[in-house]
Design brief:
mainly alpha
């Protein structure tokens, strides 16, 4: 390096750094206009309601419009001692424990079937995904009719006399079956897209090494679908904990036989709009928000630790 280059090198570096900073600022200024509409709507319909709900949870606000008073943590103390809230949370957790494993396995099997079929692939994919496009009220009404002991098809086809919607032992199971049929299409689509992204050369090489179909699935397919499986499980947990539509529609807007299908979201709605206790409903909704956030953060922590372990 010449003497001139040695002298001017620091100045050139500073000039390049200043230019990069200016370009970043200009890019941020231009990009800000593109994200402004989203940020405005997000703040208006997500951030503001959340902050408003946190404030109301510390008050005795009610839907009748009476004077609101600040009561501190009284709503949270009552919620933690409320047996109905814990029952509703237990029902949501029980529903989640039934749905998540079943829908994960079923979606994988349907994706494998649709991926390996030689004929009519588009028809099978349409049949598996189409129920997901139905509104929740349509799916709920349809299966309410199917489970009806007198006029429904389920009992007649299988020759049984199960009181699906009137017995607490079967009511939640009926909602689970409805949810599996209605929502499996989304997870099926994720698995199918992931399967199509696996290079065929891997299977061909495994065949040359003498691996049968079972070994190829265990050694190639499942490991390469691990991230998608984690995503499906996480999304299903978050969605299942918030179950509301199908449970309410199938039980005709009631908490089910002996209140066996009352979910956490339904109980929050009842407290806010039936008992008119907006402050208390806000408190239990904040508790539910914390639970869901904890589940999401735990999933992220486990995923990060797994990726770090794999990198080592």
């Amino acid at each position: 390096m010449t003497t001139a280059e040695t002298v001017f090198a620091p100045a050139r570096a500073r000039t390049a750094a200043i230019g990069a900073t200016v370009r970043r600022k200009q890019g941020f200024q231009h990009g800000g206009w593109f994200v402004a509409p989203f940020l405005t709507l997000f703040s208006l319909f997500v951030i503001w309601p959340l902050l408003r709900g946190v404030y109301l949870s510390f008050t005795d606000a009610n839907i009748s419009g009476d004077t609101t008073s600040f009561i501190g943590l009284d709503n949270y103390r009552e919620a933690l001692q409320d047996p109905l809230m814990w029952d509703a949370l237990g029902h949501s957790a029980y529903f989640t424990l039934l749905v998540v494993p079943c829908i994960t396995v079923l979606a994988f099997l349907l994706a494998m079937l649709a991926h390996h079929l030689e004929r009519g692939k588009w028809l099978w994919r349409l049949c598996f995904f189409a129920p997901f496009l139905l509104p929740s009220t349509v799916a709920g009404d349809l299966w309410q009719w199917l489970f009806n002991p007198g006029t429904g098809m389920i009992n007649h086809v299988f020759g049984i006399e199960t009181p699906w919607l009137t017995d607490k032992s079967y009511a939640m199971l009926a909602i689970v079956i409805t949810t599996l049929w209605w929502t499996v299409g989304f997870s099926f689509l994720l698995y199918l897209a992931a399967l199509q992204g696996i290079p065929e050369q891997l299977y061909e090489a495994a065949k040359l090494d003498g691996a049968n179909a079972w070994h190829r699935m265990v050694r190639i397919t499942l490991p390469l679908l691990r991230n998608i499986t984690g995503l499906v499980i996480a999304l299903q947990i978050l969605a299942s904990l918030q179950v509301f539509d199908q449970a309410v529609v199938m039980m005709d807007f009631s908490p089910g036989p002996e209140e066996s299908t009352r979910t956490f979201v339904q109980y929050t709605l009842e407290e806010g709009f039936t008992s008119y206790r907006v402050g208390y409903a806000s408190a239990i909704s904040i508790i539910f928000f914390v639970i869901i956030a904890a589940v999401a953060l735990a999933r992220m922590w486990l995923l990060r630790n797994r990726e770090e372990g794999a990198a080592r």
